[in-house]
Amino acid sequence: MRNLFAVSLFLILAISASARAQSPSIPSDSTVVDSPLTSGFNGSSPQSAIAELAIATDGPNARPWIWGVAEYQRWWIKNTSLPPLITTGNPSDPLPGAIGQPGTQVIFGGNQSYGALNGMRLSLGGWFQQSNLGWEVSGFLFQQGNFAFGTGSGPVSNPPLYVPIYRPDVGREGSITLSQPFDPVIGTGGLNGNISIASQSRLWGAETNLFFDLATTSRWQLHLLAGFRYLDLQESLIINTYRNDTVFDIQNNIHDSFSTRSQFYGGQIGVRAGTSLGRLSVDFTGKVALGETHQSVSIHGSDTVSGTGFGPTTTFNEGIFTQTSNIGRFTTNDFAVIPQLQLKLAYELRQWLSLTATYDWLYWSRVIRAGTQIDHSVDLTQSNGFNAGTPGATFPGVLMDRSGFWAQGASVGLLFQY
Predict the structure, then answer these.
(1) Peptide bond preceding 83 in cis form (omega within 30 of 0)
(2) Alpha-carbon gap, residue 326 to 322, rounded angstroms
(3) Comparing C-alpha atoms, which of 368, 363, 360, 373 is closest to residue 408?
(4) Which residue in 108, 61, 84 sits closest to 166, CA to CA?
(5) 343-381 per-residue burial string, b: 16 or more CB within 10 A, e: under 16
(6) 9 near 70, Cβ under 8 Å?
(7) Which helix (H) or strand (E) holds 18?
(8) 19 vs 24, 179, 313, 339, 340, CA distance in Å?
(9) Is the distance from CB of 328 to CB of 317 less than 8 angstroms?
(10) What are the backbone dihedrals phi and psi of residue 246, each rounded to the nearest 5 degrees, phi first?
(11) Which end of the chain has fewer CB atoms within 10 angstroms, the N or the C?
(12) Which DSSP category does 190 fall into?
């Protein structure tokens, strides 16, 4: 990521140097007006304000005809939500490890954070000569966010571990035992195993806009913008489970996989206002994009069963939360709204170079996320690894659960302009 930032910075410097070499010279007898537009109405005529607008556009304080920005970003995104995936419990409970049992404690599930994400944003823009119309293209990319968790039991099956599920086939909460000490009195237990859960998330996007200059003076500016925006959020959640039944010598290697992608395409409008205070300038941008989000979810699973108590090693196309009732790829489209607010500070180091600091807040009204696609209800009658593999079950289902999403954070960078 740092190398990519350095390369991009070099490219913008090269473009800026070329543009600087080709920029027209400024006549030495040009007049500089330092007062803001409002001073034209403070005891002077409105014609003074009009003259100042012309000077701000064409004089030595003229707006840059081309600019580029390279920024390092550090953002945070909304936590993802998971159902209870791992529990421990009391083997003496009527349904050990099931939700609602006296001894059950959830070890992993609920809201999970991907932490701070590092990224970069590149922007390039300019004004068409002899026109109040400008353009800008921009794109950003964040590193992949991750979280992971794993636990297991030793040969003595301690601690007891379970995967909690709701059993629609029997109408109650239940669990799949991963590890539990053998109880010779009731003849249950004798299992040990482990489970690991990992999730990834990546956000990126690009946009292109046209700007219309509503008003510009030596101190402030107001622009309207309109353009096209694309956003892309990809996530995955993988659950790997190993279960060893030492009593019957049966081993299960189970894999559950959920992958989601949300892609937004739409037009956007907005406004950008800015002011200058000596070397310091402040810009505020507010924009909203309206369009369609294409959403897809891919669900896959496998269960490799082996051991002398089972027979020849066999792999079934199913996991725990992934069964014949929900395995496959599914898509949907939703109307979505994406507002974004941005506050940017820039400090001029040279006439052509400024240091920037930016805060962004972005909201996406409709996305599909990997963690919320896990159906807690599992009808085990369809399972070949845990039952007879009877077809016709409808749980777990394809949830296609969608929700709002936000991202926010700070950026620092360099602005080059000519």
Answers:
(1) no
(2) 6
(3) 360
(4) 84
(5) ebebebeeebebebebebebbbbbbbbbbbbbbbbbbbb
(6) yes
(7) helix 2-22
(8) 10, 68, 68, 33, 31
(9) no
(10) -75, -20
(11) N
(12) -
pLDDT higher at 7 or 270: 270
d(CA 194, CA 161): 8
Specify the pTM.
Answer: 0.85
pLDDT band at 26 (very low <50, low <70, confident <90, very high): very low
- Contact criterion met (CB below 8 Å) for 242 and 254: yes
β-bridge partners, 358: 344, 411
What are the beta bridge partners of residue 198?
148, 238
| One-letter amino acid for residue 398 of the chain | V
Using alpha carbons, list the distances in angstroms from residue 409 to 95, 135, 142, 185, 368: 45, 25, 12, 58, 22
Residue 62 three-state SS = coil
How far is it, in rounded angstroms, from Cα 139 to Cα 34?
A: 35
Alpha carbons 124 and 122: distance in angstroms, whole number: 7
Residue pair 399/373 in contact by the 8 Å Cβ criterion: yes
Closest CA to 141 of 199, 200, 201, 203: 203
pLDDT of residue 218: 83
Structure tokens at 64: 């840059």
- Which has more pLDDT, 42 or 148? 148
Q: Which amino acid is at 232?
A: D
Question: 3-state SS of the chain: helix, strand, coil percent to 5?
Answer: 10, 60, 30
Q: What is the pLDDT of residue 155?
A: 83
What's the rounded Cα separation, in Å, for the pair 167 and 349? 66
Q: Round to whole Å and give the CA distance between 273 and 225.
A: 11
State the residue for tokens 């109408």. Answer: 171
Secondary structure (DSSP) of 355-410: EEEEEEEEEEEEEE-GGGG--SB--GGG-TTTS---S----S-----EEEEEEEEE
